[in-house]
Amino acid sequence: MFVPLDRLAATGRSIEYLEMNYKPKPSWRNCSSILSGLVSIVLGITGSSVLATYYSLQGLFNTVQIFALILTTIVPHKGSKAWNDWRQIFLGTIPNILALNFASTLIQSLILLIIFMGLAALLLYGFYVSTIPCKRYSRLEGFQEPDRSHGRSTVITSFLLTVIYLPLSTMAIHVVTWSDDLWAVPNPYVNSTTNPPVVAPLGPSDLFRGPLDFCYTTTMKKDAINFAPVIVVLAIMTLCTLTIYYPLALRKLIKESVPIADRFTELGKPRSVSDLNREYQRLLERDQNPLGFIYSGFRRGWGTYEPIYHFMKFGALLIVALINPDNCFFRSFSRTWVIVLRQVLLLVVTLVFFSLQWIFSPFRDPVNNASEWVSRLNYVLTSLVALLVALNVPGKTVIEGPILYIIYGITYSFTAYFAIINLGVMQRLVKKLAMRIDFSIDIFSPRLDISSSSPHTRRRIWQETITALFLTSPECKIPEKQPMHYILSSDSEFPPYLLKFQGSPGERHVENIKILREVGTVGYSEAIAASRGLNSTRLLHLIEQIQRNFVGPDCYWRSPSRLLSPGFTRFFGNAWWLPFPPTLVLRYDDGPLAVLNDLSDFEQYVKQNSETEIQRRREIRTVLRSLDGQKIHWPYLHVNAKDSRVSLCCRGMRYKAQTSTYYEYGTLNIKRKGYLMWEGTQLGSGFDVEIIYDKHVTVDGGTIGINDKYDLTSTLAEFLTLNRALAHSRVGGIESLLASYRQSCQRECKTKADALTYDFLLRVYDHPRDPGELASDTIKHERDLRVRQLLVSNEAAFRITYERLAAVSKTQLATWWYIFWDDFWRRNWDTISKLKLHAPDFNPHYPSSIAYTPLPRPALESFLTQRGLLHKNPQRGDFIDNGFLNKVYVRMYDIANIFHLGYNGRKLDMEDIDIETQIPLSTLGTGGGTDHDDSVIRPRPVFRWEGILSDPLVKKAPGRNLLSKLGVWLGLTPFWRTGSGSPGVALDVHLEEDHYVLSDNMKDGQ
């Protein structure tokens, strides 16, 4: 195997995982996938409207009672050993206490409900506490990294809250409506022929309530304590917190946690929507966020769907629990019409949910979308059956019997099928059974770049080697425990920045690639050109000034070209510098974000902050900042006016009374909107000054003369004079702290540039060259000895790599042949067993790979036959057949004017065919290309020529196929056709020995 690809193979990880510094876990240890599956199962079961009627207090009690009964049967009645006593305690006494086997059924149920509500309250409190750091995500500024220390507690609480959400919320509705399982008497409405039913009194009227007066009471005795008000209040609190607050808080948290797909590939080319979706799936597989189990099942842009899903499921259960003839809301109405109304509403709601699923398909996997579609169809059909039964239509017994069982049998069989077919092992099995060969690019397209400078070969040979060298070298690789976390803009307003840099060249190399993926080749190249151009010295001088003096809080920027937003009055904020591409980001105190990345803007920024008046205002802010949290001297007379009424001769008389309180001292507090902690001090944006005299008396900064411009008003001057000594003793510490912050940021930026320059990516990574030139160039431009040593000591590896690239770039045929076999290996090695068995013959990381030796067809057929991939008489399990080889050699020889589109007699070449089929097909792209060894099967639309060469020959181009995704929904194929198909192509050639020859004539249809 080529060096350093042998070292890469020894790590057992792909380049992608090394870039993330992440070790993949086996499926049985992957908590995210396990919890995600459990959540789906729990929501699927607990969200069923069929089970809604079982969500009662008695049902909850019975569940725990059964648990106690099972454990009780294990406990021996007698035992001589001490451990039997302990077994009795743990397996007998405690379960019976949990089952509350010491009171009446109603009291048991109520106590158990209170326990579960208390548990929910504790979980909600734990969720709130553990997610406090997450709430700062949108407020983080500068190089502040999110606090991930509460990840495990967040996972536990959110998972348990998800499990109990639907049952406990439904039971809370039962309490609010006071359903019959809370009635202190048996339900008198069941089997009653009158409404209201005729019920005998329970006893003397002075001791007992009326026989139908059982709503919102836990006892029928008038002199007994009624616990209903307490229970109802607790239920309402549960609805407000668990039912409403939790999904909203979870949605906000997920919104800040979902990964963001880079807009560009590592080739610096923009990603299509389909490529962005597949990149998002790759990010989810490597996502280390503890909440990944909640949003990992949904496609890009729908990560927050789970909380909406909670509400939707609860909506159906709410209808069943609320519109119920056996609760105190609807007990006096006709049972039949209440049930009919409930089923009509339930049918309408389930139809709406079904339509939403059909239209939006929020799950990222089409199989999961199909599974959810079938599940919601089940809800619709069962609701329809229940409505027909409620209306007492003819054939009721057949409808609620065999028909209902058939519906359940079909839908649950499909649910089981979808659960099985979507497993990775089953997907690989389906691929084997279908003998499907996957590619990451439109390999047969004439638009595929197969020039001598093809980005595909450069990426797969030169760039892959350099990345492997950096990430496997002991001196340059990323430190083992270093998390690769970046500052990222949700709207790509500014470039990414690697946090907590540990000083390794490997980190810097990966950061360069991340920047390229975010800004693209054009943006990256322009930034490098600016740093080398005529104004480079001027730019470096401005960067030095900004980093040294004008980053951090109290920075000023008023754009001469930007229109002011309504209500925007302050131009100070918190600024931070991103070294590449050179960018200044400033978060205003009022909230908006300003991004500067132009030389003229940098000059204007330095000029504004250097003005005497702005410097004076910055000094005022610094002094006020030094007084934050301090007891300050500022006399204040607080006048409190109260309205009062005096009764005079049965008539009320209003008057106003004033009370005055004089304060000498108060506490100055600065309220901030942003979050940036440095050495225990908050430096975030926002500068709303207030003075707190006591818990009821607070005044704003206007009291001491602060205005939006931070002018030194006479009142403010008086305030500063009164507190001069305090300010003087503290302002030096604040200035030192701000200086240390700026120095630290500047030092980290310099350390990064010293470890590996930003132009290394364009100068070396994206510019294959002779190893001799490479070594001298590295010594000239790179300052880090580790990088110099890496490139100089691996001259042999670079020479082999350069020779590999040169060999496959000699001709377009050689280039296409290499790309074909490289992609063939990367996308199919884990499915086609013969590939793994003969890896040295196929894997381009070996010098013996077929990718470096284009073969004529007879030689290739012999090669594949010897390795068991091709048989004269096709066998079951053959991935490669004559039809597939026909596609390969047609593309290799690319003979002009041998194609016919449909049954048209006009002869075309591949480029003509491509142009002719532009309109009916959906895309002209050839795909973003595989990311290193990405062999995972991911659904995607078929590529243009992938579809053209598979379309049957017809006289008229077919229209749009509405069932084109049926195979994808069933998990039988990951590809679907978008747009309309083509009329197919025919070739006017015949094979003679090892090459195609133009036919003199061609029969119609041949």
Describe the structure.
By secondary structure, this protein is an alpha+beta fold. Helix content is 50%, strand content 10%. It has 34 helices and 18 strands. Strand 4 (572-578) and strand 5 form a beta hairpin. The longest helix has 32 residues, at 724-755. The protein is flat, with a radius of gyration of 36 Å. The model is unreliable at 49-80, 95-104, 919-925 and 1001-1006 (pLDDT under 50).
Please write out the topology.
Blueprint: H1 5-11, H2 15-20, H3 31-46, H4 57-74, H5 82-99, H6 105-130, H7 151-177, H8 228-257, H9 273-286, H10 292-295, H11 305-322, H12 335-360, H13 366-390, H14 396-421, H15 424-434, H16 455-472, E1 486-487, E2 497-498, H17 505-532, H18 536-549, E3 552-556, E4 572-578, E5 583-588, E6 593-596, H19 599-610, H20 612-626, E7 631-648, E8 651-671, E9 677-678, E10 681-682, E11 688-694, E12 697-700, H21 714-722, H22 724-755, H23 760-765, H24 771-781, H25 785-793, H26 795-808, H27 812-828, H28 833-837, H29 839-842, H30 857-866, H31 882-893, E13 899-901, H32 910-916, E14 940-941, H33 944-948, H34 966-969, E15 975-976, E16 985-987, E17 989-992, E18 995-998
Parallel strand pairs: 14-15
Antiparallel strand pairs: 1-2, 3-4, 4-5, 5-6, 7-8, 8-11, 9-10, 11-12, 13-16, 17-18
Helix pairs in contact: 1-16, 3-7, 4-5, 4-6, 6-7, 6-8, 7-8, 7-11, 8-11, 11-12, 12-13, 13-14, 16-26, 18-19, 20-22, 24-25
